[in-house]
Write a structure and sequence with these properties.
Rossmann fold; Dihydrodipicolinate Reductase, domain 2; globular
Length: 342
């Protein structure tokens, strides 16, 4: 494969306009060839603004081009399966926005299609590429915190700041509520930081009392992980506060690490010492942008080198199985073992 990848983007919503298109345009190993969106005027507007040579209403026309190596799929979740299957069938590598699909079965079909087509399928789990998250994962891998005992993860979005995309609160389109929007990201980065331990048991409670949606606006869950690790998750779109909060705390036998902002405390000669790496902490917006830059660069480098991405489709299938089990635990009000419905 040449050193420069030819890229197409399907979906011209906010995530494409604010993140994907600007990053692709600046990337030294990428050439943005075309963009497609069912709203033709939106695709045309972005093509004009960012000097993208071609734009389409029908993504099939973009996929029919021989001069495109890979596509970014940035469309509502209910369209992911059809778009990804079409792209893989057309011989394109695929970077697909999170969540990969509404159900594990849909994700599995994408994985099988990628295998058949011998093409790469990567899921855009950008939190894995935040500099503070990568630092933390290396710390845990090196057992600097000892054995991790508990993880507490929360993303509490204040009521007037929840994402206003109307399809997010439509389960037929999104696959669920706040768990599919915020929870899946926090759960993924927590499990990834721990090295991907198996989830053994799940308890959960979901509510939809505050925002008037037919999907949950708040969810609290407890996950029992292999290695005797406990993971607590709390996510909401309805945080009654003047500021949103997003934080994960990893507590180990030798220390504690807090994400957002990063703070690392270790036991040194019997005393607790702050050993957070020196330097100016990156602001939240910087971390957000760097996470997407790292994610997109990793996708391109994996294609150029022929290596597997660290956020591949197989992992996404397992994560979706955990999400489905969490919904089952909440709806049935009982402890669930992932896979016990099969």
């Amino acid at each position: 494969m040449a050193d420069k990848l030819r890229i197409g983007i399907i979906g011209a919503g906010g995530i494409s306009q604010l993140v994907h298109v600007p990053i692709v345009k600046k990337h030294p190993n990428a050439e943005l060839v075309a963009i497609a969106d069912l709203e033709m005027t939106k695709a045309a507007m972005i093509a004009d603004k960012f000097k993208i040579p071609h734009f389409y209403r029908d993504p099939e026309r973009l996929l029919a081009r021989d001069d495109i190596d890979a596509v970014h799929v940035n469309t509502p979740t209910n369209s992911h399966l059809a778009v990804a299957l079409a792209a893989l069938s057309a011989g394109k590598h695929v970077l697909i926005e999170k969540p990969i699909a509404r159900k594990a079965s849909e994700a599995q079909r994408m994985v099988e299609a990628a295998r058949t087509a011998n093409r790469t399928l990567m899921v855009a789990m950008n939190l894995r590429f935040r500099p503070d998250c990568t630092t933390l994962r290396k710390l845990i891998e090196a057992e600097e915190l000892g054995r991790i005992i508990t993880v507490r993860s929360r993303w509490l979005k204040k009521t007037d700041r929840w994402s206003r995309s109307p399809w997010l609160s439509n389960a037929r389109i999104s696959g669920g509520g706040v768990l599919m929007d915020l929870g899946i990201q926090m759960l993924d980065v927590a499990l990834w930081s721990l090295g991907g331990p198996a989830v053994q048991r799940i308890s959960a409670h979901a509510s939809r009392d505050r925002l008037g949606f037919r999907v949950e606006d708040t969810l609290i869950a407890f996950f029992s992980l292999a290695g005797d690790v406990s993971l607590y998750l709390n996510v909401t779109w309805a945080f009654m506060s003047d500021e949103s909060e997003a934080q994960t705390i990893f507590s180990g036998t030798k220390g504690t690490a807090i994400l957002n902002p990063l703070k690392i405390t270790k036991e040194v000669q019997g005393s607790l010492v702050n050993v957070t790496p020196a330097g100016r902490p990156l602001r939240p917006q910087e971390l957000y942008h760097k996470s997407y830059e790292g994610e997109i660069d990793h996708f391109y480098q994996s294609l150029l080198s022929g290596s597997a991405p660290i956020s591949g489709g197989e992992e996404a299938v397992m994560l979706m199985e955990i999400i489905e089990a969490t919904y089952r635990a909440a709806s049935e009000r009982r402890e669930v073992i992932p896979g016990d419905d099969k």
